[in-house]
Amino acid sequence: MFNYKVIGNILGILLLINGGFMLLCLPVSLYFWETDWVSIAISSGITLSAGFLLRAITRKNRSKELRKKDGYLIVTSGWIVMSFFGALPYLISGAIPSLTDAFFETVSGYTTTGASILTDIESVSKGILFWRSLTQWVGGMGIIVLALAILPFLGIGGMQLFVAEAPGITPDKLQPRIQETAKRLWFIYFGLTVTEAILLYFAGMTPYDAINHSLTTMATGGFSTMNASLAGQSPAIQYIVIVFMFLAGTSFTLTYFALKRNFTKVIRNEEFVVYTLFTVAITVIVTVTLLVVKDDSFERSFRDALFQVVSIITTTGFVSADYTSWAPFLSVLFFILLFVGGSAGSTAGGVKVIRHVVLFKNSFLELKRQL
């Protein structure tokens, strides 16, 4: 049997976190003198109330034991419940009046898929768009990992939750205590997000656009506040986004080792080496192709090639140009890149580079055995 008391209690905590993040959108709406602050406040109030109620119901007589199957159920039901409540700002504000469409947009945000039903993004209020970006940022690292980081009393059974959430982060523990590992992962995630936002601001973006794009870059989600995504932005902005998309597609464990100046572990990591060399090789192929089929400078061809290759490999989804009009060969190549994915332990989607490495190694060994 499942431990429904502790499962309900933790779901209540996740709703409280979700409602707290909604409150962060209030200053944005008020700053831009938008009326949707009322909708955001109501949505946050409903979510927080549901969280408090769920915790109150499950607080008494609950066992502290959390088994692995409980962890999987918490993660699965947590994403579903949070997506339903996360759709409230869209529904109440009228930005997305359809329940199906609002739920779709929210799930796309939390899973960092990046698919959207919005056709005119710039017509949506800034407070709602900020919530849209926040859903991707929260989903990038994983709400369960955030709960482990800020709520130490979840230490009982924490590893079960950590492993169940493994697709978003690495199951390797950076510290003996699982809470310390979660805190370090979120500290790195938050630090990179802030750093990118500052660099984008100094490169010419408005503070609002810089924050939104840094949130969705580090989550490798690709939600933008502009209809044209990053097409037409300055080369400096595009290069900054390229760097942070690449970092977001790298294992956060390696980023942690790099910050600790343990560069040996980074250089000797086979997945990182393959990830880097593969990105470079495909970028060279695309750059040469663009120089042949288009009448652009080398720098522009290289920048467009590098931007799209990194964006697609990491499944971020930002665009700097209409790459579908480049050449049929490149369209097929980019389609194949969609199945590569970034590194395991990153926020990137896809199959992940390490699985491809294992697949090819195993295939080679099988072939040798047959010969």
The fraction of residues in strands falls at under 5%
DSSP helix fraction: 55-70%
What would you report as the Rg, rounded to the nearest angstrom?
Answer: 21 Å
Largest sheet: none
Helix segment tally: 18
Class computed from helices, strands and strand pairing = mainly alpha
Q: What is the count of β-strands?
A: 0
Average residue pLDDT? 88
Order of helices and strands: HHHHHHHHHHHHHHHHHH
Overall form: globular
Q: Note poorly predicted spans.
A: 167-171
> How far from one another are the termini?
50 Å
Could you give a quick summary of the protein structure above?
The protein has 371 residues and is mainly alpha-helical. Helices cover 67% and strands 0% of the residues.
Tell me about this structure.
- This protein is mainly α and 371 residues long.
- 67% of the residues lie in helices and 0% in strands.
- The chain is built from 18 helices and no strands.
- The radius of gyration is 21 Å and the shape is globular.
- It starts with a helix and ends with a helix.
